[in-house]
Amino acid sequence: MKQQLNIVVNGEPYDLFIESKTLLVQVIREMLGLRGTHQACDSSSCAACTVIIDGMAVKSCSILALQVNGKSVTTIEGLAEGTNLHPVQAGFHRQLGFPVRFLHLRSDHGSQSSVG
User: Fold this and answer.
1) Backbone angles phi, psi at 21, to 5 degrees
2) Parallel, antiparallel, or unpaired: how do β-strands 72-74 and 56-59 relate?
3) Where are the alpha helices (DSSP H) in the chain?
């Protein structure tokens, strides 16, 4: 049975109906189409799924979406101000090759592949 979820993501309000076992990372990526939040390790140890919920950093792969009902969520996409990258976004891009919306993986041989 689907339940109602009311959240604000990156300043935009959303009124969704989801299954009770849906993870927040699934809502962000699959329902809202925000691909900057990743579910990379399936064990919540890599922190690629980290979002800010009411000012606190939280791993979105380890929390049910309904647990954030009525709260405000900021993803990596929501950190920028206009066209200016947030220092976190700029740091990922500069140090690791992460553009704002996609994760680039570098192999030991220097080639890149895009995931996102």
Assistant:
1) -95, 10
2) unpaired
3) 24-26, 87-96
Read off the pTM.
0.72
Are the C-beta atoms of 52 and 8 separated by less than 8 Å?
Answer: no
53 by Cβ neighbours in 10 Å (0-12 / 13-18 / 19+) ranks as: middle
Quote the tokens at residue 5. 């979820």
> Could you write out the three-class secondary structure of 12-40?
EEEEEEEECCCEHHHHHHHHCCCCCCCCC
Report d(CA 90, CA 106) in Å as an integer. 17
By the 8 A CB rule, do 6 and 14 touch? yes
How far is it, in rounded angstroms, from Cα 67 to Cα 28?
14
- Quick: pLDDT tens for 8-64: 999 999 999 999 999 999 999 999 999 888 887 777 777 888 899 998 999 999 999
